[in-house]
Amino acid sequence: MSMIGQVHVKNNQYKIKGDFHHFTPNTPIRNADDAWKLMGVTNPRDMTYMHSYGGEALFFESLSQGRLMATRCDNPKCETKGSIYQPFRIHCPDCLAKMTPIDMTNIAKKTAKVHTFMVCERSGAFNILDKPIKFINIEFDGVCTILMSYLSVGEPKMGMRVVPIFQTLDPTYTILDLAWVPDGTEADQLPKGFSF
Amino acid sequence: MITFSDRQLSIPKLMRPVYLVTAGQSKFDRAFPGKRTEELCIDALTQAAEMIDMTPAELKSYIHTCYYGHFADHFGDQLLGEAVIHDRLGLDPLGNCGVKTGGATGGTTLWEGVKAVASGYSDCVLCMGWERMDEVPTDEGNFLISCAADKDWESPLGHIYTGYYAVMAQKYWKVFGKEEDSFRRTLAEISVKHHGYARMNPYAHGPMKITVEDVLNSPVVAHPLRALDCCLMSVGASCGILCDEETAMKLAKNAPHKPLRIWVTAGSHTLRPADRRDMEIPLLPNETKDQYKDLGKKFPGGERYPGFTGFLAARMAAYYAYNQVGIKDPTEDLDVIELHDAFTISDVQTYEDIGLRPYGCGRDYVESGDCYHTSPKTGKPGKLPSNISGGLIGCMHSVGATGIMQVFEIACHLWNRWAEVHGDEKRWKAFGRQKPADWTDLQVKGAKRGLAISHAGVGSHVTATILMNPENLIKKDA
Fold it and tell me: Is A26 an interface residue toward B (CB < 8 Å)?
């Protein structure tokens, strides 16, 4: 019985357990129009990567706890001091100082609105979002950037007020733990596992 | 509001003139089950040699350094694919270097080559680009392309790059297109034009005789974009040979054409559109300071620059290029262009970024008939024909090769060899393609100067390549 690859860190080293790759044999590719002559071979591969969130780990951990974290440059010598960044950005793009994490959940609840959006009928392999995917880009008062995410209830419109929801039950610890719904959406309309 | 220093905005200068001596390319198609990538690259290099009446071995004997544009290692499942191609081209032990900047990889490969020659490091450089996009099914291909977005913040959202781009298209559609049916039809005209021009191009992967209605009735990909608004996913290779003046003249001694002067500039912008911050619009030589002061009034929602409606990287590449070579107005000073029409709407956005029309007025470049070889409305030559190759929508988007294909196509016009190269019956036959009974010579008559824009995804990298006949320079010391 195989076990999904799992990892933890101990003494600053990755400790791995389970299967990180699965073997599938090659198969020949043959030409149906020319006596089934050999033209190539399939190369199946299934691997698991170990990826560090580094200084952004706080952001992803916070989503699973129902909080939206951003960062702010507090370097007094920076020309753009006081700028708030969402996406959460570890270092200031201007002075490169390490920025201060701030909880902007309330700012998002009170001021988030759709800057632009896209309803996408297609997806790539490994997609787990329901289609069509309703991409939205969200602007916030006092934040100098525009976050990309998705609307999980209703239809998007430019300028519409939205509020964040968080996958606090069985979180994925990815950006998919954050979604948005129109302001005024009731709790019982939220997707399974999500809460305000 | 962010600003840039004078040092950052200084205009590039080459230390010596650089010439495009010859170029070549393979057939482009969705898949080549019967050919390895190296075979396509050899096809391209062989044509480049033939264009100047040389053997590949003779041409190779001049090459000193090689730049290889190949964006997606994971598509071809071959890390260091550049080393494989270099070996198979028989170019060891020359120094070589892989280049990757997404959809702008081809243009960036030329950018590197120009700098190597201009600096004096090499007298003759090979710039070769390719992409192998047929080794996975389309949905896995979409997954692999989405890996070019930020893997923590964007890629998990559907693993579909079109979606990350299309939010920008939607914003442009709403703010500058005003969601008008007439604008939607203008977008469709671009697809009709590019698929139609591709019919005259034996290399092209997507020739189609279609109507505006066909485009408007094709399946929705991401509103307002439909399948026929989108570029192709192609396989193929293209190359160019760059030289200093002395070597260029030697190589072209028996050639039917003269070497062209070449310049390449580059710009960049945030990989995640989410990270874009407000700034003043950097102005091109044909724009004035007051020109955009009421842009937000004329187009509500268009106050933010570049917001989600413009490509700063394209504007910066054009800013450096126009000022470097002395272009005052691209529609007056250029004769033919190739743009990165990943989508019909991004084609329009680029018209504005590179100053063919002011911001908000891009559609006029199509509606005026200026973008056509021959205007369908007047029957007269277009003022500045674009994408005669068919572009990415009609000809190909074999990522690492695309920017070089554009330059090959522009060069054919400037060399007055477009009909010879694209009308050759033998080439159509060799590619297994039927030359249309209504094949038309699309040579832009008297073309002396051209421009190619090579562009990555949501605008993270853009290059501007300028080609000029040496007798028709605007600025003599450029």
Answer: no
Shortest CA gap A147–chain B (Å): 5
Running DSSP on this structure, what letter comes out for residue A52? Answer: -
What CATH code is carried by the domain that includes residue B127? 3.40.47.10
Domain with CATH 2.40.50.140 in chain A: 54-195
Whether B307 and B456 share a structural domain:
yes
B379 inside 8 A of chain A by CB: no
The ipTM assigned to this model is 0.90
Contacts of B80 (CB under 8 A, 6+ apart): B73, B98
The verdict on B39 touching A (C-beta cutoff 8 Å) is no
Is A124 close to B276, i.e. CB distance below 8 A? no
Which tens digit of pLDDT belongs to each residue from A133-142? 999 999 999 9
Instruction: Answer yes or no: do B243 and B301 share one domain.
Output: no
A111: its two tokens: 């001021």
Is the CATH code 3.40.50.2300 the one for domain A54-195? no
Tens of pLDDT, residues B384-416: 999 999 999 999 999 999 999 999 999 999 999
Contacting residues of B for A115, CB less than 8 Å apart: 171, 308
Check if B308 contacts A (Cβ < 8 Å). Answer: yes
Average pLDDT, chain A: 94
**CB spacing of A123 vs B160 below 8 angstroms:** yes
Domain that holds residue B359: 263-472
